[in-house]
């Protein structure tokens, strides 16, 4: 009964939202508004802002300050290739892209106090890698000199598991995403830089407001056994906190289309940008990740799918079927509906806070950054003893997966013993971990001693970014991985000690990815998150020590005295492997040409139904750079002008573009339009745009267009 009460308190947590309400002054027009939106442990940090003045936005308070901030905002496509390339998030090489549900975007927010400037990026990607960050910074330096640097630019990923991979330089991540894939990383780099370019061009005077609120029914803690190992007095100091997390989904191996799990951004932007297609319009809302390490959006919780019984509390497995049968379910019938439901929860609360924000930020902006060798940090444990971090290693529980998606074979969560069978295979193939590394990581039984594996390149990073930016009394702590609920609390409290009356938020998955960061107590349980805490049991203590140092430097204005730290490597491209082959030439089915319709639409549909059409298609990778393009349009006919109006593209939630790979270069594209209940009655058509590569004529790339028959949409068949 005691266990049940404790878990109920944990799962009843609610989320505080922090909304940065940025009011932009437009020359001789007054002020418009921004929101800076970002997920954190118990806080969602939201950034929303119009790129230009929009008259419907609420007016600011009277008597604005004489020297407001300069504020800029931008949004740009960073989707990348959508066919035959690995996706990032589940370390599953079979999860290759096969189309688009929605486009992915980078959203940039710049704040300048007149002498110093900070930039926050939230990008619809799994996480920011070190390679990605370094390439972005290189491009920014080439364009802007020293204006945008490693210390004042924060890059955060939304943690979608439905975006492209291939943008890492360390061996473990390259193995699971088939290498370093230039088209994938180029698309993300270009999108991030372009979003900063747009924000830079849009800089104008403005004011910043913050707000808080509560959000429920959007997540639960997926590792309560680990969480409950934290000290009771510490747990009792907190009202149970839920942090939003849209990125984890059920049936992950079946997901093969690119889509943006940041549905909250989509919904908020669409409501504000009336008359604009998705990804367009002046209003930008960025929802980003935070300390989400032990959180799940599968709020119905895990059950044994074959019996309906509860899973084992300690290791999340079932008597029949093991961990694979223990699956957590979200609020919807599938991952798309769950994403929409939770995204709408977030968007609705964000809009409430947006319209009621009154607390204004004042004061200078600061940025502090260091590179740290996380394999060799010493931390005081008490007055007489110290601990240290370790060379990276992953435990057996890492291979077990979670209730959001179980791993293969007989690995289980909570394993502190290991398995001689798997250890023997590891030793034969990769070599055993050293005694020093095994002792350092106790009680983790090491599966992969990645810090001692350097072929063909290091398997994990040693040099890690730590960074804090502040805007007046708001401090944003940029952390390099997935911090658990309690880990994030401890980081916030440590930073807050240096800032009187400051609001401290944690920005997760920033600048470099280092897996998970648990508390020392959670680490002892060795569930998935503990097995994935790669620098050992004192990882969190080392980060707290470093972030305290950054916070003190900002508070005492001694940032210039901070050691820069050891710079991370930037490996030559010829040392980065790529296992992805170029696509072969396209071949149309017999007696067809590219763009021909193979399966036609029906003549009439009712709202709420799905219009579907299948075309003879080329490989979408032959379309090259797809920025500012679309594979799909849904168009409505206007009798008065005798013209077609585009009402949806492949960036729209209502459309789904599926690429069906055939044999010997024969492909099809299936386009679905999930007709919303709000759709206007009338005549519609669906178009598909693509390119095909010819096997002759020097592999010429040729565009094509496919067009469905016109069809009717009605509210009711009875009244049509």
From TrEMBL:
Cofactor: Zn(2+)
Ranges of residues in domain Neutral/alkaline non-lysosomal ceramidase N-terminal: 69-238, 260-545
Alphabetized PANTHER family for the sequence: CERAMIDASE (PTHR12670), NEUTRAL CERAMIDASE (PTHR12670:SF1)
Organism field: Cyprinus carpio
Name by which UniProt lists this protein: Neutral ceramidase
Domain Neutral/alkaline non-lysosomal ceramidase C-terminal: 548-713
Family according to the record: Belongs to the neutral ceramidase family.
Catalytic activity from the UniProt record: an N-acylsphing-4-enine + H2O = sphing-4-enine + a fatty acid
Enzyme Commission number(s) from the entry: 3.5.1.23
GO molecular function terms noted in the UniProt entry: metal ion binding; N-acylsphingosine amidohydrolase activity
Keywords: Hydrolase, Lipid metabolism, Membrane, Metal-binding, Sphingolipid metabolism, Transmembrane, Transmembrane helix, Zinc
Top-rank lineage group of the source organism: Eukaryota
Free-text comment on the cofactor: Binds 1 zinc ion per subunit.
């Amino acid at each position: 009964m005691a266990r049940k009460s404790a878990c109920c308190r944990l799962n009843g947590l609610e989320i505080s939202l922090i909304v940065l309400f940025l009011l932009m002054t437009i020359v001789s027009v007054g002020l418009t508004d921004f929101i800076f939106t970002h997920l954190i442990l118990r806080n969602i940090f939201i950034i929303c802002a119009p790129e230009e003045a929009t008259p419907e936005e609420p007016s600011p308070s009277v008597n604005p300050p004489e020297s407001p901030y300069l504020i800029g905002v931008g949004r740009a496509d960073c989707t990348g290739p959508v066919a035959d390339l690995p996706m990032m998030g589940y370390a599953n090489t079979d999860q290759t892209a096969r189309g688009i549900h929605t486009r992915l975007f980078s959203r940039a927010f710049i704040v300048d106090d007149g002498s110093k400037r900070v930039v926050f990026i939230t990008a619809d990607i799994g996480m920011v890698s070190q390679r990605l960050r370094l390439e972005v910074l290189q491009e920014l330096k080439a364009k802007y000199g020293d204006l945008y640097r490693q210390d004042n630019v924060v890059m955060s990923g939304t943690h979608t598991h439905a975006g492209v991979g291939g943008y890492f330089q360390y061996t473990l991540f390259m193995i699971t995403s088939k290498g370093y894939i230039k088209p994938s990383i180029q698309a993300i780099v270009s999108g991030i830089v372009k979003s900063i370019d747009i924000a830079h061009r849009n800089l104008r005077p403005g004011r910043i407001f913050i707000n808080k609120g509560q959000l429920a029914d959007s997540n639960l803690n997926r590792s309560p056994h680990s969480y409950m190992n934290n000290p009771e007095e510490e747990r009792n100091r907190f009202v149970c906190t839920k942090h939003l997390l849209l990125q984890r989904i059920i049936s992950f191996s079946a997901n093969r289309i690119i889509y943006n799990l940041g549905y909250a951004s989509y919904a908020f932007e669409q409501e504000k940008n009336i008359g604009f297609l998705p990804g367009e319009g002046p209003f930008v809302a960025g929802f980003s990740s935070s300390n989400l390490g032990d959180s799940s959006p599968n709020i119905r919780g895990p059950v044994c799918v074959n019996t309906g019984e509860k899973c084992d509390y300690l290791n999340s497995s079932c008597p029949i079927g093991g961990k694979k049968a223990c699956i957590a379910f979200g609020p919807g019938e599938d991952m798309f509906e769950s994403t929409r439901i939770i995204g709408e929860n977030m968007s609705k609360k964000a809009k409430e806070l947006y319209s009621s924000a009154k607390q204004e930020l004042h004061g200078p902006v600061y940025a502090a950054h260091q590179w740290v060798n996380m394999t060799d940090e010493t931390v005081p444990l008490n007055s007489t003893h110290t601990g240290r971090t370790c060379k990276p290693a992953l435990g057996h529980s890492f291979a077990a997966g979670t209730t959001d998606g179980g791993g293969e074979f007989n690995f289980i969560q909570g394993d502190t013993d290991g398995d001689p069978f798997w250890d023997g295979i590891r030793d034969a193939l990769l070599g055993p971990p050293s005694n020093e590394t095994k002792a350092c990581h106790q009680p983790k039984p090491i599966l992969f001693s990645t810090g001692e594996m350097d072929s063909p390149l290091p398997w994990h990073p040693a040099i890690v970014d730590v960074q804090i930016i502040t805007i007046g009394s708001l401090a944003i702590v940029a952390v390099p991985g997935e911090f658990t609920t309690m880990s994030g609390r401890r980081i916030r409290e440590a930073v807050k000690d240096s800032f009187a009356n400051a609001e401290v938020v944690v920005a997760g998955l920033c600048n470099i990815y280092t897996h998970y960061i648990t508390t020392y107590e959670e680490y002892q349980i060795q569930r998935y998150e503990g097995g994935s805490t790669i620098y050992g049991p004192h990882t969190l203590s080392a980060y707290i020590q470093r972030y305290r140092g950054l916070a003190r430097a900002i508070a005492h204005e001694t940032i210039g005295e901070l050691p820069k730290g050891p710079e991370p490597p930037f490996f030559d491209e010829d040392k980065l492997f790529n296992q992805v082959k170029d696509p072969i030439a396209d071949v149309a089915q017999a007696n067809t040409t590219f763009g021909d319709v193979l399966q036609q639409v029906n003549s009439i549909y009712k709202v709420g139904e799905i219009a579907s059409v299948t075309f003879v298609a080329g490989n979408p990778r032959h379309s090259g750079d797809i920025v500012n393009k679309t594979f799909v349009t849904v168009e409505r006919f206007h009798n008065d002008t005798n013209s077609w109006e585009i009402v949806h593209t492949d960036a729209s939630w209502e459309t789904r573009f599926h690429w069906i790979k055939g044999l010997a270069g024969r492909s099809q594209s299936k386009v679905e339009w999930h007709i919303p209940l709000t759709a206007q009655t009338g005549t519609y058509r669906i178009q598909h745009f693509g390119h095909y590569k010819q096997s002759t004529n020097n592999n010429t790339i040729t565009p094509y267009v496919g067009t469905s028959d016109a069809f009717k949409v009605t509210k009711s068949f009875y009244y049509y």
